[in-house]
Design goal:
Strand content of chain B: 5-15%
CATH superfamily of one domain in chain A: Trimethylamine methyltransferase-like
Oligomer: heterodimer
Strand order of the largest sheet of chain A: 6-5-16-15
Distance between the termini of chain A: 58 Å
Number of strands of chain A: 16
Number of helices of chain A: 18
Distance between the termini of chain B: 32 Å
Radius of gyration of chain A: 24 Å
Shape of chain A: globular
CATH class of one domain in chain A: Alpha Beta
Order of helices and strands of chain B: HHHHEHEHEHHEHEH
CATH topology of the largest domain in chain B: Rossmann fold
Radius of gyration of chain B: 18 Å
CATH superfamily of the largest domain in chain B: Cobalamin-binding domain
CATH class of the largest domain in chain B: Alpha Beta
Helix content of chain A: 40-55%
Largest sheet of chain A: 4 strands, mixed
Number of domains of chain B: 2
Number of strands of chain B: 5
Structural class of chain B: alpha/beta
């Protein structure tokens, strides 16, 4: 028998969620969304329950309910019943490991950070964009390097990287096929109430391939959604519902879903600095709302709790990540985005990822399952050891101390004298050393034939002027 | 088999160590050789690994306990010149202080390293320490304190012990104690942890 898991109480009630649900359905049915793509409009026009006025499309609520019911979330086996860190989100600024200065990431950085992420069992997108490569090859490189140096990167339901043109999507699809990785495509809504035109173009292009597609939207409270968090969430639900319904009607050769990583996001905005504030108190609150909504719709829980407004691996970054993640974990979340990022996802830091990983181990220990039994009460031990004696030399201590106590790798428990003796290193220095060691010692090899095939596809892409031209639009 | 004996000390396998000692003695291996190349050699490794944070306290204690049990069997076979004990140490937590985890660790580590230890416990009066030192002809007195309020009692205690036993060496330790403080109160030595207390005790002899 285990002691009950710790949990949070409070938050959105079932009745409150159902009210938001009804209002979101009303908006899908009565207000509608813009779908700026002729081909998709034509496909949708074949369905009963779809009303089209120019680019504005409205769906009857039964179509929405059907889409919600048919949505499928294929969480891989390795992602079940464990704590997951989804690290990085293709950042374009890198916190240099040698100089601690901010600079543009390179292909070599991408390789090293992919190795580090793999050594720490992380999932998700490529950590940084290799800005030394031509723009039309960057996304291909990110996938190729992810496949070559990691087990989970750019794969499974945690993959959420853009494929900005049909040509780019085709190459990524080909590489994913060669590497045996899952390929999906996500369509982003641009709040309020419209789609990313280019995303629709790529989605339409991919319809024949029978690939999973997902919908995502991130309305910003007070900017692209009304100012109250509840209203922004309701708009988010409305946009997700409409987007999912559209996908469910047009992408019939595979399944569709609401992207769990950003499901029912309502992002806060700082009106002074005019920027997103992912590490803010409001964002933590938003995670709690999001978690309640995802539970209601049976969507896997992923919290973007490893994001921070901190600019360095510092106290702000640690506090924001720590509190947000603990609260999310108490709400039942076990998958956490975007480990290693700083400055609201502008910057990626290897040291910050190591700190996030350590923090996660700490929180896992706080919330670990614990058996309740008479054996664990150890009454006989208490009886046997007399006043003035010690339990340190007891066999039970010897046998169990490693399982009863978590041993940190980074958050050292040394005393002051020991810390001085070990070089009086700052937390950043220690994280830096761990990161370097893990990168150096990382070993993961893909099949030689797969590697050759990836190289061949990449070589073809490099010479493909159509691919290059497809990026001129951006 | 000597290597096995050494390993049994390192891994804290008490039963194995006892079996090996008996078996090696029966085969005619000299007791001194077992002591030096088995037990002490094993504890040296333990000490090193503890210092480099490769071994953990409960493991060290198990090794020390194993060493102590093995010594019980070995002792009758060692001659007076074999150096059964490195020296006699009186250990005590200073009067007014009832904290003993650190002091107990030092006692165990000293025993494991081959010292003969008389642990007087906690809240020990200086008179009791002086009497024990006389009775046991102690080489070293180890005094521990955890509190800043009790550590001040160390200075007069050291003075009084010196007046009665000018030959005995006095080492001090405990969380608030520093080398500077130990120097100020004229202790012969200070060690920040149990392992270094053993090294200090050896150097004081």
């Amino acid at each position: 028998m285990n002691i009950s898991d710790f949990s949070l109480i409070g938050g959105l009630s079932k009745d409150q969620i159902e009210t938001m649900h009804e209002k979101a359905l009303f908006l899908v049915e009565e207000v509608g969304i813009q779908i700026p793509h002729e081909g998709i409009i034509k496909l949708l026009s074949d369905y009963d329950g779809v009303t089209i006025e120019r680019n504005t499309v409205r769906f009857k609520s039964d179509l929405v309910q059907k889409a919600l019911q048919e949505a499928k979330y294929d969480v891989p086996d390795y992602g079940k019943d464990v704590w997951i860190i989804d690290a990085g989100a293709h950042q374009t600024t890198y916190y240099d490991m040698d100089t601690k200065k901010l600079r543009q990431p390179t292909t070599q950085d991408l390789i090293e950070l992919t190795k580090l992420g793999d050594a720490l069992d992380t999932v998700g997108s490529a950590p940084v964009v290799p800005l030394d490569a031509p723009v039309h090859l960057q996304i291909l490189l990110m996938h190729k390097i992810s496949y070559e140096h990691s087990r989970y990167r750019c794969n499974d339901i945690y993959e959420h990287m853009d494929k900005p043109s049909p040509e780019c999507a085709d190459y990524v699809y080909e590489m994913a096929q060669a590497a045996g990785k899952r390929f999906s495509f996500g369509v982003w809504m641009i709040s309020p109430r419209s789609f990313d035109k280019n995303g629709l173009k790529v989605a339409y292009h991919l319809l024949d391939k029978g690939i999973p597609m997902w919908i995502s939207t991130m309305p910003v409270a007070g900017v692209s959604a009304p100012i109250t968090m509840l209203s922004a969430l309701t708009q988010s639900m409305f946009e997700h519902f409409a987007g999912l319904t559209m996908l469910n009607l047009i992408n019939t050769k595979s399944f569709n879903y609401i992207a769990p990583d950003d499901a029912f996001e309502a992002d806060p905005f700082d009106m002074k600095y005019t920027t997103f504030v992912y590490g803010s108190a409001e964002y933590t609150r938003s995670t709690l709302y999001k978690t309640a909504l995802c539970n209601y719709y049976n969507i896997p829980l992923i919290a973007k709790s490893l994001n921070t407004a901190g600019k360095e691996p510092d106290a702000q970054a640690a506090f924001e990540n720590g509190t947000h993640t603990l609260i999310a974990a108490l709400a039942g979340v076990r998958a956490f985005r975007t480990g290693g990022v700083l400055s609201c996802a502008e910057v990626y830091s290897a040291e910050m990822l190591v700190i996030c990983h350590e923090m996660m181990e700490y929180l896992k220990t706080v919330l670990k399952k614990e058996e309740f039994s008479e054996e664990r009460l150890m009454i006989d031990e208490i009886k046997e050891v007399g006043p003035g004696q010690s339990f340190i030399g007891r066999k039970s201590t010897f046998q169990h101390f490693k399982t009863e106590y978590w041993e940190p790798q980074l958050f050292s428990h040394s005393n002051l004298g020991q810390w001085k003796e070990m070089g009086a290193k700052s937390l950043w220095q220690q994280a830096n050393e761990i990161a370097r060691k893990k990168i150096k010692e990382h070993e993961y090899h893909i099949d030689e034939n797969v590697a050759k095939e990836l190289n061949r596809i990449y070589a073809v892409a490099k010479e493909d002027t159509k691919l290059e031209y497809s990026f001129k639009y951006f | 088999m000597l290597d096995e004996l050494k390993d049994s000390i390192i891994t804290g396998n008490e039963e194995k160590a006892k079996e090996l000692i008996q078996s090696l003695l029966a085969q005619g291996t000299a007791a001194k050789q077992l002591l030096d190349n088995g037990l002490i050699a094993g504890m040296d490794v333990v000490g090193h690994r503890f210092k480099t944070y490769e071994m953990y306290l409960p493991e060290v204690i198990m090794s020390a306990t194993t060493m102590k049990s093995a010594m019980e069997i070995l002792k009758p076979h060692l001659s007076k010149t074999d150096g059964v004990s490195l020296g006699k140490v009186i250990m005590a937590t200073i009067e007014g202080d009832v904290h003993d985890i650190g002091k107990n660790l030092v006692s165990m580590m000293l025993e494991g390293a081959g010292f003969q230890v008389l642990d007087l416990g906690v809240d020990v009066s200086v008179e009791k320490i002086i009497a024990a030192a006389a009775e046991e002809s102690a080489d070293i007195v180890g005094i521990s304190a955890l509190l800043t309020t009790t550590m001040v009692a160390m200075e007069p205690a050291i003075k009084m012990i010196r007046e009665k036993h000018s030959r005995v060496k006095i080492m001090v330790g405990g969380s608030p104690i520093t080398q500077e403080y130990a120097d100020k109160i004229k202790a012969d030595g200070f060690a920040p942890d149990a392992l270094r207390a053993v090294n200090l005790a050896k150097s004081l002899l």
